Amino acid sequence: MSQEDLKRQEIIGTGIPVPGNDIDTDRIIPARYLKCVSFEGLEEGAFYDVRFDEEGRPKDHPFNDPRFQGGSILIVQKNFGCGSSREHAPQALMRFGMRGIIGESFAEIFAGNCTALGIPAVTASQETISALSETVEKHPDTQIVIDLVRKEVTCGSLKTPVEVPESARQALIEGSWDTTAQLLANQREIQSTAAAIPYIRWSVEA
């Protein structure tokens, strides 16, 4: 994937409102799913314990609601992603289909883990979150646009400013959020630099 493909200047999709403050990473992805060797299949555990009962029967949860199926922008409230710093939480959300998150506030490490996956986690006022949730509840097919260049969100007739740490915004806009891709794209420079460092050269020769 080229750096151009990694650029996240606009995120467009329909919304899924998940109400509640202090939704922690254990609720987003229960601890038993952390035993996986890779992140593959984590989407199955997203919000599992609040989506299903002990018999595996679906509960009343936005991720089970047919109105919001195919939604890719999560709308949340205060302190979303608090608790354990597990990166499995944003991995599960990404693999479930989330491409952006709009909330009143986020746990700092959770927001950083989102950025590392190319998922913008932008903040807005309580009034904005309420208006977005209300619009999506009434009209689930309303398109939402997260514009990172202009730092604003559009949803139907609503257009409002949002905030995002500048370092995260620039990384997403420029496509430099994927550190593995950055390393692969600069292999020659890395090898050249490594060759000029004596203790690395001696280690390789030994």
Summarize the structure.
With 206 residues, the chain is an alpha/beta fold. The chain contains ten helices and eight strands.
Characterize the structure shown:
This protein has ten helices and eight strands. It is of the alpha/beta class and 206 residues long. It folds into two domains: 173 residues, Aconitase, domain 4; 30 residues, no CATH class. The strands form two sheets. It has a four-stranded antiparallel beta sheet with strand order 1-6-7-8, covered by helices on one side. Strands 2-3-4-5 form a four-stranded parallel beta sheet. The protein is globular and about 60 Å long. It starts with a helix and ends with a helix.
Q: Please name the CATH topology of the largest domain.
A: Aconitase, domain 4
Record field, number of beta strands: 8
- Counted by DSSP, the helix tally is 10
List the secondary-structure elements in sequence, H or E: HEEHHEHEHEHEEEHHHH
Radius of gyration using CA atoms only: 19 Å
The CATH homology group name of the largest domain: Aconitase, domain 4
Strand order of the largest sheet: 1-6-7-8
Helix fraction by DSSP (H/I, runs of at least 4): 25-40%
Supply the CATH architecture of the largest domain. Alpha-Beta Barrel
CATH class of the largest domain, anyone? Alpha Beta
Q: What fraction of residues sit in β-strands? A: 5-15%
Q: Which regions are unreliable across 5 or more consecutive residues at pLDDT < 50?
A: 202-206
Q: Roughly how many Å apart are the termini?
A: 35 Å
